[in-house]
Specification:
2 domains, 24 strands, alpha/beta
């Protein structure tokens, strides 16, 4: 929630030259859009002529689960423009490939139950995935193995979290020049305080919660003791899960896994990986066909990737009663953004509420938080659904922290993975003070007010807050924290003082969340759906998914973003410093 709403003035006045420049750029953009639109339409027409919307599942099929790209909760619609972007001679238009967790889980279930699928080939090991969702995939693969079918894995190099997934395989193959990056975990954070000092910006911080460290990068140069304590606790918890799981699958003692990590296996040879028991076979990736022929018993086997197997037709249910699954992924914003947009989610929840056939709702939450106001609006919309006697169950993904927990706390039942990052019950506000840079460039501000604090908005930014102004804003932040903790107390049926005692902005792992009562049970999205069915008293049901998948044309506009990683980092700092706001956001940490 922004402290202030500000509109920028047109500084060009009646000067026509800037408008001519914009017109030229606009014409180029229109040309590009028309070009890609025409190519996309042609691609669709060609697709209709030469392929069907469904894929036939043939005998002797292998599910080729490629662990690469970025994992998202809900698969996106196939984009007819995607193939065009990589060949562009200018700009960085190649969109990063994403793969839907929903498709992976559905495909693994199909592979388990359909006799036409002989086994699963885990190909590559570079998927960008956090620990909690890695466990979801790993558990699904373990369940697949109860069918008696095989799993083999191959990659030149295995990232640590990907190795945690593929450790369930019957055979793990590695390229002669490859390695398993089994090195232990680290948590790194960037601190921008000295950068801001150099450009003359001071971040004025208002927060509630000793552990609410999301703002520390803007007024500290290193971790606080509180942040170090909570970060170490959840990093150690994730590492314990990795070691326990790999030890069980690979039959390597946990203390030996620590020894291997100390030796930084990512820098050891492929032969060393075999001796350590991390992998089974050294084979060139180009020769994997020979091994697959052995496992399938034929040279005429078929392979289907995740996208293709997802297009295999599933039986359609004629049941009327529905369980709705709403995916809420990303940072929470008020009116726009790529993640959880408050106004759009409220609109979707209203639509769900109006559907008389929906008897239960599962919220799949994967969010580090964001806007406090948008979180409150979503919370209220969820309560309206509950008021209609529709049970609401939450399934937490990688994160359901701060605002992500805010929108979860009012559910009837909450599931989390052991390594889900949750809690972070706290509020903060930031107000940039640009007085130093204003003085440096010679910008003067003067005006007239009718009351003592009439100019509080501009004073806070251009002059810096005085004690009274700071107290007024701090009081507002504390009201936000009081509201947040009251929502949690109401949802969890405990005293507000207890929520405050385990709140303070502290991040908890899912298994700790069960212990302290902010989570009901450890489990995945299937467990959440089963609980929803139980609470709704359904004997039969079908699933319906929200939000509706994004139009491919909207994906095209995102793909036109040619910003580099460095530019995106600068944009992040600029966005954080550009306007005052109240946020319920967990600290950002890079876990490797």
């Amino acid at each position: 929630m922004n402290f202030f709403n500000r509109r920028s003035n047109n500084v060009y006045g009646e000067d026509a030259r800037p408008r001519r420049k914009v017109g030229c750029l606009g014409g180029c953009l229109i040309f590009l859009v028309v070009y890609f639109l025409c190519c996309g339409i042609l691609g669709w027409l060609m697709g209709d002529m030469f392929s069907s919307s469904t894929v036939e599942l043939k005998d002797k099929t292998v599910y080729r689960l490629q662990l690469k790209g970025t994992l998202v909760e809900q698969a996106k619609e196939a984009n007819p423009f995607a193939g065009l972007m990589g060949s562009m001679p200018y700009g960085n238009y190649a969109a990063e490939e994403s793969v839907g967790l929903d498709n992976i889980l559905s495909n693994i279930r199909l592979a388990k139950n359909d006799d036409k699928i002989l086994g699963i080939w885990l190909d590559d090991a570079s998927l960008s995935v956090a620990p909690a969702n890695a466990k979801v995939i790993r558990d699904a693969l373990l369940d697949f193995k109860t069918s008696g079918k095989w799993i083999i894995a191959s990659a030149k190099n295995y990232s640590q979290t990907n190795y945690y997934i593929v450790s369930v395989a019957d055979r793990i193959c590695i390229d002669p020049t490859g390695a398993v990056n089994w090195n232990g975990l680290s948590a790194q954070k960037m601190y921008f305080t000295r950068v801001l000092e150099k450009i003359g910006v001071e971040m004025q911080i208002l927060k509630v919660g000793t552990f609410k460290s999301a703002v520390e990068p803007f007024f500290r140069t290193s971790m606080s003791d509180a942040d170090r304590k909570q970060t170490k606790e959840y990093i150690d918890g994730i590492w314990a899960e990795y070691k326990s799981a790999v030890s069980a699958s690979r039959h390597i003692a946990e203390d030996q896994l620590d020894v291997l990590a100390d030796n930084y296996m990512g820098l050891q040879t492929a032969e060393d990986q075999v001796k350590a028991g991390l992998v089974d076979t050294i084979v060139y990736m180009q020769d994997m066909d020979s091994l697959l022929r052995v496992y399938t018993g034929t040279k005429d086997y078929n392979t289907l990737t995740t996208d293709k197997l997802a297009q295999v037709k599933r039986p359609e249910s004629k049941v009327k009663d529905k369980v709705a699954v709403l995916y809420l992924e990303g940072e929470i914003t008020d009116d726009s953004g790529d993640g959880i947009v408050g106004k759009d989610v409220v609109k979707t929840l209203k639509k769900i509420r109006k559907d008389d056939d929906i008897k239960a709702l599962v919220l799949r939450v994967n969010s580090p938080g964001g806007s406090a106001d948008a979180s409150e609006q979503i919370w209220h919309a969820v309560q309206n659904i509950k008021a209609d006697s529709i049970p609401v169950i939450v399934s937490m993904g990688d994160y359901a922290a701060s605002g992500g927990y805010y929108i979860s706390c009012g559910a009837d039942y909450i599931f989390a993975e052991p390594t889900t990052l949750t809690g972070s019950i706290g509020i903060f506000g930031t107000v940039p003070n640009v007085s130093k840079i204003r003085n440096k460039v010679g910008l003067d501000i003067d005006g007239i007010t009718t009351n003592r604090n009439s100019a509080l908005q501009s004073n806070a930014i251009y002059k810096g807050m005085n004690k009274e102004e700071h107290n007024l804003m701090q009081t507002m932040v504390e009201r936000g924290y009081d509201l947040f903790t009251s929502r949690c107390a109401e949802g969890r049926h405990v005293e507000q003082d207890y929520i405050k005692s385990i709140g303070e902005g502290r991040v908890w792992l899912g298994n700790k969340g069960v212990e302290i009562g902010i989570v009901d049970e450890l489990g995945n999205i299937d467990d959440a759906i089963a609980k929803a069915v139980e609470l709704a008293g359904l004997e039969s049901y079908k699933l319906t998914y929200y939000p509706e998948k994004q139009d491919p044309f909207e994906e095209l506009l995102k793909m036109l973003d040619n910003s580099t990683e460095e530019e995106r980092l600068i944009m992040k700092v600029r966005d954080f410093c550009s306007k005052p706001r109240i946020m319920a956001l967990m600290p950002e940490v890079n876990i490797q």
